[in-house]
Amino acid sequence: MHFHDDSLFPENQEKLVIQAAPYGPEWLPGDADDLPLTMDEHVQAAVDCYNAGATVLHIHVRELDGKGSKRMSMFNELLGRLREAVPDMVLQIGGSISFAPEGEGGDAKWLAYDTRHLLADLTPAPDQVTIAINTSQMNIVEIMNDDDLEGTSIAKPDYYRAYRDMVVEAGPEFYLEHLQRLHANGIQPHFQLAHLAQLETVERLIRSGVYTGPLILNYVAIGGGFAGRHPADLVEFIRRVPDGAVLTIESSMRAVAPMNAVAIALGQHVRVGNEDNLWRAKGERMSSVAQVEQMVQISEALGRDIATGADAKRIYRLGEYYSDADETLARLGMVPNRRPGQRGFMLRDAQA
Predict the structure, then answer these.
(1) Is 188 a residue whose pLDDT tops 60?
(2) What's the cofactor (predicted)?
(3) CA torsion 198→202→205→211, rounded to 10°?
(4) What is the pLDDT of residue 99?
(5) Among the listed residues 114, 57, 101, 332, the one whose alpha carbon sits nearest the alpha carbon of residue 203
(6) Three-state secondary-structure class, residue 19
């Protein structure tokens, strides 16, 4: 992204889109004070986050026994109720479905490709499904400390090892088919990227014409194979993202607020919720709603407006697709592909 001299002025920045993740699939009941269990509680969590200022909802579903649900019928039920309860929110299904271990000593696994592909067939369809690109380690506890995990199920050795050894399976066999299915059903992919190598893979998908739509990204700074918390890495990722992309910053535990404060100042968007963080300060719990409210306060203190639901849908360009790679590159503000025999650096066409 290019920053002009006036790019940090809030009146020149897009309104802030707050993504809420209040369903904490890695946690068990009792780990957080606001984990929804019943379907009514799932819906109420969405309503509360929306009323606090969130306009994008990152969705997982929990069974009554507290474990993450793998049943598409439950996703369908929740989506139907959310369409009525929070019609202005962008509904985003978490593409991992449920990566929580089934019990102590079990592995924390993402589900098989066939099951994850079923997210493209949900009814009613979500606005977005998150998608991982390239298989990588996802050791979510690597940069967590004892204070982060105090009093939670992940503090138990067996659960800790389950998350320490977790791997995201997302090779070409998965993402090529998944992108095709999402496109066929009018669902926007929301790319969850761990580092620049994955961003480069997405760029190659665009340049080859495999993906022809808006570029909606999360920079996932959770460590353990994903990005870490170094501010220079965050700024470099922002610098490498095309001007026409939409970028949300996602971090973990007490780093969420400072990482998001940088994101807000730089005109990017933010994600909060108990899936990412449980704490306001050391030893002080913080609900998903309170985290949304904190982002509103930071943004308002800087003079940056908060996006409404209609704003979020416009910013995300839901339902928009492009004819080919050339149009996609132009829409995203990227330089065109090299033509046969063309030498030197690429320039945008004058008409574009």
Answers:
(1) yes
(2) Zn(2+)
(3) 140
(4) 77
(5) 332
(6) strand
Give the 3-state secondary structure of residue 287.
coil
Give Cα 335 distance to the centre of its chain.
Answer: 26
Q: At what angle do helices 288-302 and 256-265 cross, to 10 degrees?
A: 30
Closest C-alpha to 58, from 87, 84, 26, 22:
22
In whole angstroms, what is the distance from residue 246 CA to residue 214 CA?
A: 8
Q: Is it the case that residue 283 has pLDDT exceeding 60?
A: yes
Q: Which two tokens stand for residue 88?
A: 């202005």
Structurally, what CATH architecture does the domain formed by 10-331 represent?
Alpha-Beta Barrel (3.20)
Beta strands in 118-268 (DSSP E): 128-132, 136-137, 167-168, 188-193, 216-220, 246-250
Both tokens of residue 16? 């802030």
What does the domain layout of the chain look like in residue ranges?
A: 10-331
Residue pair 204/174 in contact (Cβ under 8 Å)? The answer is no
Q: What is the pLDDT of residues 202-249, one digit of tens each?
A: 999 999 999 999 999 999 999 999 999 999 999 999 999 999 999 999
Q: Is the pTM of this model over 0.90?
A: yes
Q: Where are the alpha helices (DSSP H) in 12-135?
A: 39-52, 72-85, 113-117
DSSP 136: E
Pairing of strands 279-281, 284-285: antiparallel
d(CA 21, CA 43): 13
- The neighbouring-strand residues paired with 162 are none
What is the residue whose two structure tokens read 């990204």?
217
pLDDT in tens, 146-172: 999 999 999 999 999 999 999 999 999
Q: How far is CA 184 from CA 121, 178, 273, 342, in A?
A: 10, 10, 31, 35
At residue 249, the 3 state secondary structure works out as strand
3-state secondary structure at position 218: strand
pLDDT at 63: 93
Q: Quote the tokens at residue 175.
A: 């993402």
Strands (E) located in the chain:
18-20, 56-59, 90-93, 128-132, 136-137, 167-168, 188-193, 216-220, 246-250, 269-272, 279-281, 284-285
Helix (H) or strand (E) holding 235: helix 231-240
Least confident of 40-44, 97-101, 110-114, 158-162: 97-101
